[in-house]
Task: inverse folding
């Protein structure tokens, strides 16, 4: 009886230890770097983000989002029991680019063909890949795709361990920004009358813009712009160009950004770039889209007339 109780206690303890081990292992998902020449950022487990890299899923991270025409890297963690020497003792990755200690190959597939593997325009599946890293060139069409992966042990290529893994990826449009305009486009012409926003020098003007983004909320919009003086205008203090200026966009897509003018003249403010958090993540070559018809704003800072006194004949003439 005593032996039975002792064995049962051993069994219960072993099960508890296994549960604890599995839980710790499930939570051990620190950020990892994909070491490519163009990308040294931290990558996080699908379902988590940089503020919570544990095994707790975050609703907004259960689908990946990328911007059209971008190139994105993905990697998968191999089974630790098949490739134990690929990991450190704490189960972190030794070197993600090192395949010498990997005892598996990987089969990747892109289900709906909104992108292609390795920059090819026609490759949607690869079997027997020796690296757990994959690169996808996304196309110019928006939509949802599914990236699937199966791990195959090298010792028996006829067997596939487990059921594989998959993630859903939303391919979205680049953001768009335009100046809000009243009446005709604000084109500069010599001798023209600039009445679009005439103010005296030394004031701040909030320039109105409209932003279109496919990011549903907290888009975290940033813009770049240049400020130049129109030809023939006098010199003086100039507002600085803007780089990665954050603006707050309301539910209707409206926003403003301020500029302070300290000298008189006619200025051209040109929007050169706009990004949301997904296009910045995607690192697309042209992060934002500018609609040319509304990318320039001609702004006049006019000197008020300081009229002298009126002259007349005196009454005692």
Result:
């Amino acid at each position: 009886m005593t032996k039975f109780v002792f064995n049962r206690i051993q069994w219960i303890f072993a099960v508890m230890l296994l549960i604890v081990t599995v839980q710790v292992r499930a939570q051990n998902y620190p950020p990892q770097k994909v070491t490519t020449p163009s990308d040294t950022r931290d990558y996080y487990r699908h379902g988590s983000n940089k503020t919570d890299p544990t095994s707790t899923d975050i609703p907004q991270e259960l689908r990946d989002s990328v911007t059209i025409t971008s190139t994105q890297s993905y990697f998968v963690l191999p089974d630790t029991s098949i490739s134990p020497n690929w990991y450190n003792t704490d189960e972190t990755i030794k070197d993600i680019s090192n395949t010498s200690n990997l005892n598996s190959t990987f089969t990747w597939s892109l289900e709906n063909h909104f992108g292609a593997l390795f920059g090819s325009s026609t490759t949607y599946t690869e079997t027997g890949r020796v690296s757990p890293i994959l690169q996808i060139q996304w196309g110019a069409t928006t939509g949802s795709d599914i990236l699937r992966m199966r791990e195959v042990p090298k010792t028996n290529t006829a067997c596939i361990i487990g059921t594989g893994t998959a993630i859903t990826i939303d391919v979205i449009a680049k953001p768009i920004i335009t100046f809000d305009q009243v009446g005709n486009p604000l084109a500069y012409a010599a001798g023209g009358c600039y009445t679009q926003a005439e103010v005296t020098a030394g004031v701040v003007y909030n320039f109105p813009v409209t932003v279109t983004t496919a990011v549903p909320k907290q888009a975290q919009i940033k813009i770049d712009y240049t400020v130049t003086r129109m030809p023939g205008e006098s010199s003086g203090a100039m507002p600085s160009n803007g780089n990665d200026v954050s603006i707050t966009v309301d539910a209707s897509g409206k926003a403003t950004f301020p500029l302070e003018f300290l000298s008189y003249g006619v200025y051209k403010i040109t929007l050169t770039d706009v990004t949301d958090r997904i296009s910045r993540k995607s690192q697309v070559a042209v992060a934002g889209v500018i609609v040319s018809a509304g990318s320039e704003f001609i702004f006049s800072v006019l000197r008020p007339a300081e009229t002298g006194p009126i002259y007349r004949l005196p009454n005692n003439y």
